[in-house]
């Protein structure tokens, strides 16, 4: 693969990642969130595959297969089942800040991510390093979603967005993670999502709703 | 091993032995064993102090788990003086406690805390460096807090008192720690020698001095940081109040002396003015509150504030006069400070033990419900009477000698034509005079209402004399008050040695050749004795010519069976004072009149209720506490249980950190 193709593919996947993240913040429907998350998972897998091809590393290609399976297929499926049982409430009705404000916050956070990454960018001028701010921005978006959405499934989506951001930064800066470590991290994420999914359905059966603002008894 | 080292080691061993005895001894023997060991601990303290005063040296180093090095004990003559005071009070109080302690006060915790308290208190003045000092100081504070809490299960006010005490004692610790940190930083080391290298006229020294004086004043119970004192004393068991009031608050005085005489001698005159100001306000405010108090132990607590005020007044006078090179009067004031420390320790221990005996006998702390105890508790009455004489600073007691010395100093101090001295000294004289007068009223009230006349309650009517150990302790303490008053020279010599002054007194007298003043209590006693005999003889001779009259009880309406309720009570005795000082005391009065039937003129019942609040507490601390409480309630809003809010906190924190990093 020529250097130009590599750079362009890398920038394409990074752009796709950021676009999906912004769209997650924009959209309110949980179904759309899950689909976007799946696309983002495939984009991440693509990014890893591009890196693997560029560095001729078979291990990274295996990692990309793993990422695609987990983030592109398994996790969205698990989330889809969580929302499937409750079709009527599959929307984030009243987020704590409205969409306009959220999009403004997103632009601010993207700027911040680029500003903060200046020391990292100064390390080298490769295409991989140049894409690092995208990962940072995704992590910040994830945090934003976590702290402004009320629905329990939205929390999961925020968490996964955060995780995708961290993974992106890791792949871009470290030039890939050993397969064993990636396997461990992926299993962790899977486990967390499964537990939270069970918890969400328990919350719903207990309170008849998955709105976390109804649960403010846990203090003192 | 020098005698001082041996005595210090003995103290440490005795503390351990006391703790072990308190834990391991069977309940029947616990009080006896632990009490005897604590008394021996006190005596060991007296011995150590006496040797240190005599100029012997000795250093004991205890290895600790701290990273700051060993605890160093290295008593100086000044520390030795305070060790003698603390040890003597501790010994007497421990003997008293053998018979007095019962219920929670005789528990394992209580005896362990007492042994630790006495040990730590005796070792505070022996500390050879800052870390040892602070360690002992905090150990003393901790153990005394446990002791104040002794009766927490039965009485709600004990818990409040302990809370106040703990808060104020921590404030004191924090201030002292800050002050010493400033000093150690400026001096370049945490031993006393490095700290004494700081220039006393520098700004750093001034900051350190103010912080340290504030911290030590809190421990000493000086107005306006005295609020713990009148609460903690009624709450604690009496032997503990005796130790706290007679010895522990003196550690605050030791702290100020340590800073102003030993570490930074030659400070500017305004240091003295600060100390005099604190002392004057405390003396007047303390005795004013004491004079209208009707709870006996609260009265004694306020009286402690008054005496500490006088001690501060003496010390401040000494600092001012030394700064103005009026050395003769300055030395006399410094001597007066130490004499006041010793005499207050003696008479306040006697008084608190006496109050404990009264409480033990009648179950009452309220003076308005006592009376007639002199016939039922003769030993307690004698001891308390001697203590009250001392507190009122009347002749033949230690209190008189000390106040006389203080007056000599302030009267002779006003000679140079300096503005500050010319203003301070007359104020000091008038404060001492007012305080002395009010103290007389206060203790006439305390003794007269409690011990004379008739019993005002069943408890007082059925009182029984204390156990032998309690009687012995009270009599020993009372004897010390008399001995220090009759033969004050030895104490004056010791005090002079403690602060490095030439000993100008013989054993039987206190004298200041430069001031042309000399006091010989024994001569005074003989003189008074001769005069009283002469008056008595003359009166007897004159009485022969006048026919004998029968005097019946006044207010008896011709009958002798007057009700005990027709007597003066503590409240009514202090009523004129309450009126005179109405603006300063602001008592809350409540009169409820119940009319008989429809009549406007016939009264069935009149209820009078008077409550004197502590103005400082009411005006200064209450608003502060309300504010803190409000802030606390407002603070709860930060934590309302919403997950989003908690997430938002960390998110915002992250963003802020990133922004700061990015900029």
If you average the pLDDT of chain B, what whole number results?
88
Total of helices of chain B: 26
- Secondary structure class of chain A reads mainly alpha
Share of residues in helices of chain B? 55-70%
Strand order, sheet with most strands of chain B: 1-2
Low-confidence stretches of chain B: none
Number of strands of chain A: 0
Shape of chain B: globular
Total separate domains of chain A: 1
The number of helical segments of chain A is: 9
Largest sheet of chain A: none
Which two chains share the most extensive interface? A-B, 20 and 16 residues
How much of the sequence lies in strands of chain B comes to under 5%
CA-based gyration radius of chain A: 18 Å
Distance between the termini of chain A: 60 Å
Main location (chain A): membrane
InterPro entries (chain A): HyfE-like
Protein name (chain A): Hydrogenase-4 component E
GO cellular component, one term (chain A): plasma membrane
Question: What features would you describe in this structure?
Answer:
- The complex is a heterodimer of chains A (220) and B (663).
- Chain A is mostly helical and 220 residues long.
- In chain A, 78% of the residues lie in helices and 0% in strands.
- Chain A has one domain.
- Chain A has 9 helices and no strands.
- Chain A is globular.
- The mean pLDDT of chain A is 84.
- In chain B, strand 1 (60-62) and strand 2 (71-73) form a beta hairpin.
- In chain B, helix 13 (327-362) packs antiparallel against helix 15 (378-391).
- Among the domains of chain B are: 268-540, no CATH class; 616-662, no CATH class.
- Helix content of chain B is 70%, strand content 4%.
- Chain B has 663 residues and is mainly alpha-helical.
- Classes of the chains: A mainly alpha (220), B mainly alpha (663).
- The A-B interface holds A 96, 109, 112, 115-116, 118, 140, 143-144, 146-148, 150, 212-213, 215-219 and B 639-644, 647-648, 650-651, 654-655, 658-659, 661-662.
- Chain A: InterPro entries: HyfE-like.
- Chain A: It is a multi-pass membrane protein.
- Chain A: The chain crosses the membrane at residues 6-26, 33-54, 60-84, 96-116, 122-146, 153-173, 179-199.
